[in-house]
Design brief:
single chain, alpha/beta, Rossmann fold, 2 domains, six-stranded parallel beta sheet, 46% helix, 12% strand, elongated, binds magnesium ion
């Protein structure tokens, strides 16, 4: 299958460019708990309480924000974790938790070895960008900088900087602006989330490609909504051929 006149390719970040293994969250939260202990000068708290509190607030935010498309508040999760173990969520404590979360996230992100070559090759033909739903922008930027991949992208849009999450049109509009305002029909957005990526980019007038390469669990919203992808791929490297 071939797609006519593509000018730009937009990528989701987690589970599209980089695999995001669910078990990494445990490791990230252990470092957040350690930062809480250190910054609040307290004895190590019960990790189970920190973990369960983080997930409970996160899941509540996901449920609420799916309708409002407001960004998920990471500091609210950290504050709840601190309070749950008897610590005051001061600026210092929250800052330490945010920093620990960022460095643990970056350490957990390992790019597939073919990713630099693929981006290098695509960037010779298309303008590229990233549109990521993430409640902190530093981990996304630091990961791309560490792997020397930032240079391939005209713009890197992270939801945290907008206070809104995909599928909100604002993020796709910002990406298009960063790409030099191409006709949206000539932009292909690639993502693993049916609602955020396929419906969001579709509503913004973009073409889409749905990738299932890294997602461990099925997409619960699969098939819902008005927009269908041009293709579903099992490997991001199929893009070169698909777009040619
Ligand atoms: Mg994703």
């Amino acid at each position: 299958m071939s797609i006519p006149v593509v000018e730009a390719v937009s990528f989701d970040f987690a589970d599209t460019l980089y695999p995001h293994r669910p078990d990494e969250l445990q490791r990230v939260l252990r470092q957040v708990a350690a930062a809480l202990t250190g910054s609040a000068a307290m004895d190590p708290p019960d990790f189970g309480i920190v973990h369960d509190t983080f997930l409970a607030v996160r899941n509540q935010q996901f449920a609420e924000n799916r309708a409002t498309l407001r960004e998920n508040d990471l500091d609210a999760r950290f504050s709840a974790c601190a309070r749950a173990v008897g610590a005051a969520p001061t600026t210092k404590v929250l800052g330490a938790m945010r920093e620990a979360y960022t460095s643990a996230f970056v350490a957990a992100m390992v790019p597939p070895d073919w990713l630099p070559g693929l981006l290098e090759s695509l960037s010779r033909q298309y303008r590229l960008c990233v549109i990521s739903n993430y409640p902190l922008s530093a981990p996304i930027h630091q990961t791309l900088d560490r792997d020397d991949l930032r240079r391939y992208f005209e713009t890197v849009i992270v939801s945290a900087d907008f206070g809104l999450i995909k599928p909100h049109p604002r993020l796709f509009a910002a990406a298009r602006e960063g790409l030099g305002n191409p006709d949206p029909a000539r932009v292909v957005h690639v993502g693993d989330d049916w609602d955020a990526d396929i419906q969001g980019a579709g509503q913004a007038g973009m073409k889409t490609v749905y990738t299932r390469q890294w997602r461990a669990v099925p997409d619960t919203h699969y098939g819902a909504g008005d927009h269908l992808p041009l293709a579903e791929i099992e490997d991001l490297r199929q893009l070169s051929e698909l777009l040619a």
